[in-house]
DNA sequence: AGTATGACATAGC
DNA sequence: AGCTATGCCATAC
């Protein structure tokens, strides 16, 4: 499918282990920086096998409606992958921000 | 076919 | 410095 959703899934699936990215960044990779909301909507309907826990907002904070598990689970998942967290509970984007294809 | 909504982002107050 | 309001594009109803 050429749907934007599918595109989002592809990009999200390409996020390296122990790395995170933002909705805006993904949207930028899609070609339209304004698609940030679409990215969120896509992840909302994303399949369970999608590592959506590696996607955070530009503040590095997790979404309020990440999944039924809650953002706390997401935080644990990221910590488990070696992603450093800040004191405010946000991800240290300065160290783990994924800027696109760098595999 | 039109309206409403959204896991964001940016600007203004 | 923190909160409110608006923009923006695609999907769902």
TrEMBL record:
Protein origin, superkingdom: Bacteria
Keywords carried by this UniProt record: DNA damage, DNA repair, Methyltransferase, Transferase
Recorded GO MF terms: methylated-DNA-[protein]-cysteine S-methyltransferase activity
Domain Methylated-DNA-[protein]-cysteine S-methyltransferase DNA binding: 4-83
Catalysed reactions, as listed in the record: a 6-O-methyl-2'-deoxyguanosine in DNA + L-cysteinyl-[protein] = S-methyl-L-cysteinyl-[protein] + a 2'-deoxyguanosine in DNA; a 4-O-methyl-thymidine in DNA + L-cysteinyl-[protein] = a thymidine in DNA + S-methyl-L-cysteinyl-[protein]
Pfam families to which the protein is assigned, alphabetical: DNA_binding_1 (PF01035)
Cross-referenced PROSITE patterns: MGMT
InterPro entries according to UniProt: ATL_DNA_repair, MethylDNA_cys_MeTrfase_AS, MethylDNA_cys_MeTrfase_DNA-bd, MethylDNA_cys_MeTrfase_DNAb, WH-like_DNA-bd_sf
GO biological process annotation, one example: methylation
NCBIfam families referenced in this protein's UniProt entry, alphabetically: ogt
Official protein name in the record: MGMT family protein
